[in-house]
Structure formats: C-alpha cells, structure tokens
Amino acid sequence: MSELASTPAPVPAHIPPELYWDHSLAEFNNQLDDPFIAASRLLEGPPLFWAREAVHGRSGWVIARHALLQEAFMDWQHFSSEGGMDLTLMMGVDWNLNPVNIDPPKHTGYRKVLLPMFTPKSVNHMEAAVRETCDMLIAKVAESAENGRGTCDFVSEFAMPFPTYIFLSLMGMPIDMAGQFFQWEQDLLHGTSMEGRVIAARSILAYLEGHLAQQKIAPATPLMEAIMGAEIDGKKLNDGEVLGMFYTFYVGGLDTVYATISWSMRYIATRPQFQQFLRDNPDKLNKAVDELLRMFAVVSTQRRVTQDMTWNGVEMKKDDLVVMPIFIACRDADAYPNPHEADLERKTQMLSFATGPHLCLGMHLARREIRIAIETFLARFANIRIPEGHHYTYHAGPTFNVDSLPLTWD
Ligand code: HEM
Questions:
Q1: I need a labelling partner for 81 at 20 to 30 A (CA). Which of 140, 241, 369, 408 fits?
Q2: Nearest atom in ligand 1 to 170's CA
C-alpha cells in the first residue's frame, strides 16, 4: 500500500523549479462554479508541468495542451498504460485492467476479441434495448415530477441509472444490482478516503469473480460468449485476463456516460436557443453530441514513462507518472477556437475518447446512449431549465461528475 500513501513524495531532482506546481489538481479544478473553466486556466501556464498532487495524492506530470496530449496518446512506446495504476494496486492483484492497461502488441489480441461487439453495426442491434431503458426511466421521471413536485433530479433519476442498466444488460447481471453498483462506483471513483476506495475496489472484484464463475458454466450475453469463448494464440483467456475486461467495462462504461449526459443536459438547460435549435434540427443531433462530448470531456487518464528521455524539451525519468486530463485539451483554443461554446461547424476531431491504440472501444455505444437520451428528453419536455433558486452540484476528481441537477419544464 505504500505506493498509495496520500502524503506527496518530495520533489524529484529532475524537476526544474519553473515546472513545479505546488497544488492539488483536484482542488484547483473545484475552485469555480464550472470545473471545465477552472481546469482550462492551466492552458495559460506551461504545456507540461509537475504537480504536487496530480491524482489521488500522487505527484506527477500533467499534460496541459491538446497537441501534446494527442502525441502522448499515440506514443505508447514512451507512455505506457501498464503498471503502477491506482486500481490494480488497490485490489492487490497481479493482472491489469484489460485491454485499457495493457500495451501493444499484447493489447491488440485482447482488443480484437472485444471489437466486434462494439462496432456501429453491433450498436444498431442494441438500440432498441437502449431506447426502451431510456423511455422507461423518462416515464418515471415524468410521473414523479408531474405528481406534484414539478422538478426532477436529472442525475439520480436518469443519468446514473441509464448507463448502469445498459451495462448490466451487456454483462448479463441482475438489474437489482444497480443500486449497489452506484454505491461502489461513488466510493471507488469519488471517495475521499483511501480505505473506502480500497473496500469498494475489492467488493467490486469479489462480485465480478462470482459473475465469472457463472459465465464459465453458461455465458449470459453475446459479450460474455465472445469473452469466454475467445482464444489468443490457441489459448483461452485466464481468470485475470477476463476479470481485467469485466473491470474495464465497469470503470469505463458507467461513470463516463452518466457524467457526460449530465453536463450536456446542464448546458442544454441553460441555453434555451441551443435547446430549441436541437429540437428543430434533429439532423444536427449527432454533431451536437460530439460537440457536447468535446466540451464536457470528463476523463483524465494516466500513463507511466518507460525510459529516461527528453520530451518536448522536458527531462522525464523512467516510471514518472503522467496525468492526461482530456478536459484541458478539449478546451484548448489552439485546437478549438471559442472552446467554451458548442460550434456545430467544427472540423477538428474531438479527443474525448482518446486516440491511438486505446481509443475508446465503447465510443459508438456511448454516442448512441447520449443521443437517445437528449433526443428523447427534448421530444418529451418543453423549455427544460434549472428551476429558479435551485443550483447544480458537482465534484471534479479524475472524472468530472455532476452530483445533482434539478430540472423543470413546461
Ligand atoms: C462518454 C462516455 C465515454 C468516454 C468519455 C470514454 C472515454 C474513454 C477514454 C478516454 C479511453 C482511453 C483510456 C486510456 O487510454 O487510458 C477509453 C477506453 C475504453 N473505453 Fe471508453 N469512454 C466512454 C464510454 C465507454 C463505454 C460505454 C464503454 C463500454 C461499454 C467503454 C469502454 C472502453 C474500453 C473497453 C476502453 C479500453 C480500450 C482499449 O484499451 O483498447 N467506454 N474510454
């Protein structure tokens, strides 16, 4: 556990004083009403700097420009996804999250197993189920809001359950696990005490181990069949390889979608003209979803430097931690002029799903979930807004999440 201690290490000798930032990135991002604006203040400083607390109390490099982040994502030879990552240390296991924390060339075999399940065509097959889940949740929201309260909490009543139900159905897990999954997810990804995070990480693992035992007997869904039946170089995947995949879906597919939908809905609820434009121009929805994903790029991921090197004029040492906050890169005006507003004519590709070998496998599913959610809300409710006197709340850790978003409509 010593690697997870929350006291920051002394400043390493290779960090020049002008690149040392004596702050916690999470605290800095929580300073304003909007964490994306708060984080974007770092675009005024050096493109690459060493933070006293880069993530969960650990010191490390922070990449604060779009061009550099894109370069690091592509360069897996120098920026490894393997080893020293929070979660595997917390669980005390000897396998990695799979494929997200495995480098090429090994990564390629695992990715090939999963890829066919997440193509646009496969997502087309999931669309009916996604719509059904969305409609069911929106009907509940409408019923409870119209039964006197007049408002809903978009986050707890829609944004959190929506991707969780979809995740459960992809994995073949019982729907009544949803509540427990929210709780573990909150404790793991947003808990403030390391003990609480470790307990959550290990509870999830114990649940996934039980699920694995059942899948060995009878795989419950096409995704489970693909994973349980997969062979790489003539060998079936071992337990660690499979659990690494299950865990990746858990941490990758829930929090990210719920956070993006919530930030997007807050934007829509505070921009009546943009809201009406989307209602009147459904053909622009796909582009709008990409712009919302760009503006509300909720993820910050990590890498480990593989060798001593000078990179973009900065001396880096083997095993240095590198934090990759996509939310800063996606507000970089050099890549996206007028970065804090939606511009449906933008040509530069957004980076929210990363790039390079680990480009998000679930991106087509995520886009579809977000589009269906927005489309259905806009069709069902007029003049969606935050009621007067109400406020939203958020927290900005490694992922930026909305905690509550009160909404009302006509
Ligand atoms: C708005 C929603 C989402 C965002 C912003 C997002 C973002 C990302 C990012 C940035 C990465 C790269 C991480 C890294 O390189 O360290 C990634 C990888 C991944 N994501 Fe997503 N993701 C989202 C939704 C999903 C969903 C719904 C799923 C699946 C159900 C999913 C599955 C994965 C997987 C399996 C990987 C690893 C790919 C690989 O290593 O080859 N993601 N995602």
A1: 369
A2: 30
